[in-house]
User: What shape does this take?
Amino acid sequence: MIFYTIFISQNELLHLKKKLNVIKNKNNKSHSTQFDVLVVGELNIDLILNGLQQFPEVGKEILADNMIYTLGSSAAIFASNLSALGVSVNYCGCIGNDDFGKKIIVDLESKGVGTENIIQTNHVKTGITVAFNFDQQRAMVTYPGAMNELNENDITDAMLSNAKHLHVSSMFLQPALKPGLPKLFKRAKDLGLTTSLDPQWDTTEKWESDWKTLLAFVDVFLPNIEELRNITKKQNVDEAVATLKDFANMIVVKKSVEGASAFYKNEITNQPAFINHEFADAIGAGDSFNAGFIREFIFDKSLKQCTELGAVCGAINTTAHGGTTAFTDLASIKKIALKKFNYILQ
Ligand SMILES: Nc1ncnc2c1ncn2[C@@H]1O[C@H](COP(=O)(O)OP(=O)(O)O)[C@@H](O)[C@H]1O
Ligand SMILES: [Mg+2]
Assistant: This one.
């Protein structure tokens, strides 16, 4: 009998375990599919409990008036709404082999988003955020689960080659993906794609990244104003933008009801928000802004046209609860844009 000794590092072992546990990753199919935008990001369920009489207390039980069980995650809202705007979109993210994961697939597919590059794994569960809404306040608990799993190697050259544009969102919620982002964006650029990044909030509030290397490969950087301030450690927007200007490309700062400002080379476009008289909530407004902006950007529209459709889509988002409700299909989005914001969407 011959005994073999195999030396394998802890990291390699983890990677191997993960690969063996992957039960669904139809990457091979991506060879036959072409799409406009590949979205890489977190995937999770939102469970929102509304109408509480108070916040939960240890040892007691309270009732909620209403419950919303829905597809969460910034990148998924972006993907759904961009698809509803008529762009072909494919998603790469990580979910568990469970009912939450199945719901995510069904919801994305119902909006026309391609899901064959989503990785389903047996060894972790799909992530979930439970939100407790009391009065005007909200407390949230997130179980990241499969959101911790995706890494740069999971996004293959075949997936990238099938897309014209790469969009990544929520870098701080994906610890395995974050260190590989400069490499991923460089690979995308080398393969001829245009690229965009929405950093989203850093729950650790450290805001650490190799920004210089990363942003050099990002064509459109899409932070909101608080994220920009935290990343640059500057309060004033012009000063904040100045700290990134030497290595970043286009910087688009979202400023809630103040609209947005886009900076590219020496060009500055200030876009006011579209006034919404029927405000429901602003959940996902930034992701809808991104969807409108990128729809125009991938078709080489001007900076003004990109920011304008971004602002229209941000405003449309706020006319209904949640991030995707107002974005059913192109015909109804066009109607809302015209009726509520006097904007003709081509
Ligand atoms: N109450 C609102 N009314 C009209 N437009 C809005 C409103 N809130 C946000 N928007 C639009 O959506 C965009 C993105 O929203 P913002 O809250 O800045 O992003 P994020 O969700 O990333 O924080 C804004 O730039 C603005 O154009
Ligand atoms: Mg945002």
